[in-house]
Amino acid sequence: MALRRPSLERRILAAFQHALAEGRFDVAEHLLCALETLVPDGAPGTALSAAYLSAAEPDPQS
After folding, report:
1. Residue 3 belongs to some domain of the structure
2. In contact, 54 and 14? CB cutoff 8 Å
3. How many CA atoms does the CB half-sphere of 19 hold within 13 Å?
4. pLDDT digits (tens, 9 = 90+) for 4-13
């Protein structure tokens, strides 16, 4: 049985969330642009909507 690999959108989302956690907002901005290109509608449940929610969450270390 073959393992299913995460989609490109999910991989970019993970990198976006990592960039936010590291405080690399410059990198996060580029990754968000990539997600907006891949998932133009941003409907609930998409990687793009998850990215928007991640960006809106307060930083737990503040």
Report:
1. no
2. no
3. 17
4. 888 999 999 9
